[in-house]
UniProtKB/TrEMBL annotation, chain A:
Region Disordered, residue ranges: 340-364
Molecular functions per Gene Ontology: mRNA 3'-UTR AU-rich region binding
GO biological process: exonucleolytic trimming to generate mature 3'-end of 5.8S rRNA from tricistronic rRNA transcript (SSU-rRNA, 5.8S rRNA, LSU-rRNA); nuclear mRNA surveillance; nuclear polyadenylation-dependent rRNA catabolic process; rRNA catabolic process; TRAMP-dependent tRNA surveillance pathway; U1 snRNA 3'-end processing; U4 snRNA 3'-end processing; U5 snRNA 3'-end processing
Keywords (A to Z) from UniProt: Cytoplasm, Exosome, Nucleus, RNA-binding, rRNA processing
Source organism superkingdom: Eukaryota
Subunit structure and binding partners: Component of the RNA exosome core complex (Exo-9), composed of EXOSC1, EXOSC2, EXOSC3, EXOSC4, EXOSC5, EXOSC6, EXOSC7, EXOSC8 and EXOSC9; within the complex interacts with EXOSC3, EXOSC4, EXOSC5 and DIS3. The catalytically inactive RNA exosome core complex (Exo-9) associates with the catalytic subunit EXOSC10/RRP6. Exo-9 may associate with DIS3 to form the nucleolar exosome complex, or DIS3L to form the cytoplasmic exosome complex.
Cellular component terms per the entry's GO annotation: cytoplasmic exosome (RNase complex); nuclear exosome (RNase complex); nucleolus
Biased composition (Acidic residues): 349-364
InterPro entries (UniProt xref): ExoRNase_PH_dom1 (IPR001247), ExoRNase_PH_dom2 (IPR015847), ExoRNase_PH_dom2_sf (IPR036345), Exosome_comp_Rrp42_subfam (IPR050590), PNPase/RNase_PH_dom_sf (IPR027408), Ribosomal_Su5_D2-typ_SF (IPR020568), Rrp45 (IPR033100)
Domain spans labelled Exoribonuclease phosphorolytic: 32-163, 189-254
Compartmental location: Cytoplasm; Nucleus, Nucleolus
Protein name in the entry: Exosome complex component RRP45
Taxonomic source organism: Mustela putorius furo (European domestic ferret)
Family, as annotated: Belongs to the RNase PH family.
Lineage per the UniProt record: Eukaryota, Metazoa, Chordata, Craniata, Vertebrata
Automatic annotation (TrEMBL), chain B:
Organism: Mustela putorius furo
GO BP terms, alphabetized: nuclear mRNA surveillance; poly(A)-dependent snoRNA 3'-end processing; rRNA catabolic process; rRNA processing; U4 snRNA 3'-end processing
GO molecular function, one term: RNA binding
Oligomeric and partner information: Component of the RNA exosome core complex (Exo-9), composed of EXOSC1, EXOSC2, EXOSC3, EXOSC4, EXOSC5, EXOSC6, EXOSC7, EXOSC8 and EXOSC9; within the complex interacts with EXOSC2, EXOSC7 and EXOSC9. The catalytically inactive RNA exosome core complex (Exo-9) associates with the catalytic subunit EXOSC10/RRP6. Exo-9 may associate with DIS3 to form the nucleolar exosome complex, or DIS3L to form the cytoplasmic exosome complex.
Entry annotated with the keyword RNA-binding: yes
Family as reported in the entry's similarity comment: Belongs to the RNase PH family.
Keywords of this entry: Acetylation, Cytoplasm, Exosome, Nucleus, RNA-binding, rRNA processing
Gene: EXOSC4
Name of this protein: Exosome complex component RRP41
């Protein structure tokens, strides 16, 4: 299905709101939406919700032979898929540009920054290494896919446990999870992407744009950092012209945001570890509250209603009561009558209505002359005689 | 290659350059007679060829035509013999698609597309030898080709790569320096206004060093601009001599 185009008035409304530093969901310019991380029953499976954008991440591993030019390193493979349930515009053939961009950005962010120690994935040099595969699926698109996907990828990798392997001489033994506890991957650092949306040729910028804001933005700048303030990737896209100090400012903001998000991730991982150790129930079913029928919930926005009554009374007091319409039937010629001239138009300015009142006497005469041709008001046919009162017939 | 010093104590790099020095750039415009615009550039050992067709009518579906601007279509291809090992897939793989998208983004910002509504401008870039800084060479070649085709642009688009080794920012990385795994930044700049058309960075770089690397890349891009400007003026002089002015 083709994407519904954004109407011009909605576009103008969004841009005007952004100029006044207001966002539709009430956030500040540098605020992130609520991030919620939940884990599945298997190790390496997680769902990340950034506001309403939802990404599912799953990590799996396999023993394969290594690449020829890197015989002692494991293989990392990332794949992000835009599921058709995420947005009506996503169809099997139609997504290529966006998909390529997102996939390449994720690859560069996670692979080139060496967040995973690939040397530790080697089992037998030149023959057997672990291939770690990270599959990400976008379940709902409400803007800022790249941030949610990067969080999901790194959380899934931190959560994942691979089977234990021991090498004795030439013998390689692969233990099942029952025989020996699976081993976590060795992760050096956690790179997290932060997106900045630019509007009006770079004058205004917003962090974490939602889907509407993404439609009206000029371009996007993605900065991936870790909590040690090392920049892992920078990517500007969309044809915006940036200035050097804008980039530096964004990197400072990104540093702050990444710290907050990393703390959240650590807390979520810690919680899950505790629950599993204590033998409690874990998994996706536990993270959905049972009182709700659907998994989506509209958050209540706090609105100050304390002075609504006073304001309403003020408005009523200042407004003038509507003019009473007096039915005054006028008889022009036998067989036709006219009741009223329509209600007075209250849209015009005060000046105009004053003018109208002055001219009203003059216009009455004009009406008498043209009564047969003009069609103002209601024309009623006279059923009875002329002397009898005029009766409106249905 | 472990133990390879990218920056020696005296401040020399692997190929004998200083930290902020560019490789030798040689460029020529108008290499193909039948294309609207073409250019060939050599940055050190990196050789890139760019060809521009347009502005012409939209090929394929008319529905893609934009009512107020021209459509810019970029395709990137690197020859199978361009790298040390023979490449199996010259087109259609993710990296080539991404490069094409990035080139398109860069040139959509620089070309005055409002002057040619409902038409299409094609830019094809081919890398013949990749020795580091391929994105930069592609952008520089494409700029010259677009100028050769006479398509109006806001300004030159000059690109350069930069890296960071031993607390020093290096400009114009070669393949050896890129493969060493340090941070690499690719920057495309409009020199007159200093606006950045595209910024791309890989691998870990501490935030404090970002400014020096950006500065080094911007300076190198301005140096590239001086060279490209000279090439364009030379070409125009030759062309006007042939026309008998």
């Amino acid at each position: 299905m083709k994407e519904t185009p954004l109407s011009n008035c909605e576009r103008r409304f969004l841009l005007r709101a952004i100029e006044e530093k207001k966002r539709l969901d009430g956030r500040q310019t540098y605020d992130y939406r609520n991030i919620k991380i939940s884990f599945g029953t298997d190790y390496g499976c997680c769902i990340v919700e950034l506001g309403k954008t939802r990404v599912l991440g799953q990590v799996s591993c396999e023993l394969v032979s290594p690449k020829l030019n890197r015989a002692t390193e494991g293989i990392l493979f990332f794949n992000l898929e835009l599921s058709q349930m995420a947005a009506p515009a996503f169809e099997p053939g139609r997504q290529s540009d966006l998909l390529v961009k997102l996939n390449r950005l994720l690859e560069r962010c996670l692979r080139n920054s060496k967040c995973i120690d690939t040397e530790s994935l080697c089992v037998v040099a030149g023959e057997k290494v672990w291939q770690i595969r990270v599959d990400l699926h976008l379940l709902n698109h409400d803007g800022n896919i790249i941030d949610a996907a990067s969080i999901a990828a790194i959380v899934a990798l931190c959560h994942f446990r691979r089977p234990d392997v021991s090498v004795q001489g030439d013998e390689v033994t692969l233990y099942t999870p029952e025989e020996r506890d699976p081993v976590p991957l060795s992760i050096h650092h956690m790179p997290i992407c932060v997106s900045f949306a630019f509007f009006q040729q770079g004058t205004y910028l917003l962090v974490d744009p939602n889907e509407r804001e993404e439609r009206v933005m000029d371009g996007l700048l993605v900065i991936a950092m870790n909590k040690h303030r090392e920049i892992c990737t920078i990517q500007s896209s969309g044809g915006i012209m940036l200035l050097k100090d804008q980039v530096l400012r964004c990197s400072k903001i990104a540093g702050v945001k990444v710290l907050e998000i990393t703390e959240l991730i650590q807390k979520a991982l810690e919680n899950d570890r505790k629950v599993r150790k204590e033998g409690g129930k874990y998994g996706f079913a536990e993270s959905i509250a049972s009182q709700r029928i659907t998994a989506f919930k509209m958050e209540k926005a706090p609105i100050d209603t304390s002075d609504v009554e006073e304001k309403a009374e003020e408005i009523i007091a200042e407004a003038e009561p509507p003019l009473e319409v007096v039915s005054n039937p006028v008889l022009w010629t036998p067989g036709t009558a006219q009741i009223g001239e329509g209600v007075e138009n209250s849209w015009g300015d005060l000046e105009d209505s004053e003018k109208e009142e002055e001219d009203e006497d003059g216009t009455d005469e004009a009406i008498i002359l043209d009564s047969i041709k003009m069609d103002i008001g209601v024309e009623v046919s006279n059923i009875g005689s002329q002397d009898a009162p005029i009766v409106l017939s249905d | 290659m472990a133990g390879l010093e990218l920056l020696s104590d005296q401040g020399y790099r692997v190929d004998g350059r200083r930290a902020g020095e560019l490789r030798r750039i040689q460029a020529r415009m108008g290499v193909f007679a039948q294309a609207d615009g073409s250019a060939y550039i050599e940055q050190g050992n990196t050789k890139a060829l760019a060809v521009v067709y347009g502005p012409h009518e939209i090929r394929g579906s008319r529905a893609r035509a934009l009512p107020d601007r021209a459509l810019v279509n970029c395709q990137y291809s690197s020859a199978t013999f361009s790298t040390g090992e023979r490449k199996r897939r010259p087109h259609g793989d993710r990296k080539s698609c991404e490069m094409g998208l990035q080139l398109r983004q860069t040139f959509e910002a620089a070309i005055l597309t409002q002057l040619h509504p409902r038409s299409q401008i094609d830019i094809y870039v081919q890398v013949l030898q990749a020795d580091g800084g391929t994105y930069a060479a592609c952008v520089n070649a494409a700029t010259l080709a677009v100028l050769d085709a006479g398509v109006p642009m806001r300004d030159f688009v000059c690109a350069c790569s930069a890296g960071f080794v031993d607390s020093t920012a290096l400009a114009d990385l070669s393949h050896v320096e890129e493969a060493a795994g340090g941070p690499q930044l690719a920057l495309a700049l409009l020199p007159a206004s200093g606006q950045i058309a595209l910024l791309e960075m890989d691998a870990r770089l501490h935030e404090d060093h970002l400014e020096s690397v950006l500065e080094a890349a911007a300076r190198a891009a301005r140096d590239v601009h001086t060279l490209l400007d000279r090439v364009v003026r030379q070409h125009v002089r030759e062309a006007s001599v042939l026309l008998g002015d």
